[in-house]
Amino acid sequence: MAFILESMIWYLLAIPLLLLAFYVMWRRGSVRRGIAQRDEVILDRLDPLAEKLNAKESVLPDEVREVGSALENRPLLFEMLGYFERHDLFPREWQSREEQARAMLSYWLLHPNELQAAPVEVETIENMERAVKGESGVFEVLRYRMAEGHWAGTDWRIGVVGPFCEGEAPFSTVAMAFSGAAPEGSISGAEAVDEFVGIVEAIT
After folding, report:
1. How far apart are CA 21 and CA 29, in angstroms?
2. Nearest Cα residue to 141 out of 112, 171, 164
3. What residue segments make up the domains of the chain, in order of their start?
4. Where does residue 117 fall: left (phi above 0), alpha (psi -120 to 50 degrees), or beta otherwise?
5. pLDDT digit string (tens) for 176-188?
6. How does pLDDT run across 80-94, given as a tens digit for each residue?
């Protein structure tokens, strides 16, 4: 009888652990699928430029500006131009830390597990320096809002992008974006950065 009870206890303890393991695996797969889904949308927009570059045809700076006018396109656009060794076509003003942050937050929000759309407005509020695992970096605090009719509403919300470290190339994978969808005014920039630093340290 004692053996049966002990077996039942272990069985009952195992169920939550198995469910947790399943959730973690599903979540990781969901994130990867979401990245692929989001990137497919953007890569479709970049295809005409990629085809011209691959064919060694002339590409005008205005063509790049047109594609990059949507902030969420810029991270992959920069990566694509690097592949073709044509970073010279990417506007220098889009490579500033503030512009990188605006683009990276827009790109991140487009993920199906996030807001599933890019914001219509993104503005830098402030920046601050923090150490992440002993290395100093700058975090950009931004506010953004979604288009009229979006399910998340149109209130201004807070987002954070970073850390931007000295000497890193533009749109480096070192810098990441995050938004807990906190309405503007409900959390300070410092609190938002500290929350994000905790997340970055936990996953790196």
Report:
1. 12
2. 164
3. 1-95, 118-204
4. beta
5. 888 877 888 899 9
6. 999 999 999 999 999
